[in-house]
Every structure is written in structure tokens, then in C-alpha cells.
Fold Reverse transcriptase zinc-binding domain-containing protein.
Amino acid sequence: MGYMVRILKERKDAEFFVLHQIGDGSTIKLWQDPWHPLGILKEAFLETLRYNLVCSYEATVSNIIHEGAWQIPENARSHFPYIATMAENDVEIGGDSDHVVWTPSLSGTFRLKETYEGMRNTKQPIDWANRIPRQSFIAWMALKGRLKTLAKLKQ
């Protein structure tokens, strides 16, 4: 399997590493991009409710910003007040243009090493000396054919 195929399989996990900083909101998709603290809003709203909120599926965040302040439609605020409140309290609007930040990297740009470190499962090291009896380990090594016997040492 090629590297690109493996990378594409991890695409869903990589969405959590993208942070959209809102400037004017013109390049960030309202429903499809993870700009909100809850993540991608299309997953939080039913399709029929999105239709009733007057913002199309292709709408940008600029549709709910007016003169540098949030202007969330009243029907959206009444159906999901916590989503509107979180946007107003936790998402800052500022600057001229929108920016995408890659969160695993300290610089905010994509780096393979930081992405790998962010995606892999890190576990605490295990103190094997106190967990596995010596005889069990030797038996396991013998079954695998990896035990250094006198015959193997002579080779």
C-alpha cells in the first residue's frame, strides 16, 4: 500500500489538527471547516435544520459576521444557544484575512515529524522487570527461536 493511500486513510483524524483563525471569514466554510470549538458544525446540525437557518451549505463564516462582530441568525440562536454563545465567547474575529494553523507544529505550519508525533499513540513506558517473571521471558524467547544458546553463540 502506498504512502498516499495510508495518509488518506488518516484524513479524518487530521481534521482535528487544523485550526482556523478568523479574519474576515471569507475563506472559511461555515458548515464544513473546523472553526468552531465544537468542531465541524455540519455534524452538530441536522440537514433540515441547516436549511431552516438560512445559511446555505456553501456559506462562509463571513455570512454571520457584520462589521467585525458576530451576527448569528436569531433562529440559530434559539435552537442552539450554546453553539452561538461558544462562538461569541471563544472564537475571536480579527485581522484582515483568515489563517489556517497546523496545531501539532509550534510554528503553525505542516511538519511531518510533529504530525506523526501528534497522531501516534503514546503510552507510558512499562517497567517490564517487575511485571514479567524471568522464566516466562526465557520461555518466550525460546519459543521464538531467539534464545542465545551455546550453538547460536558459536555461529
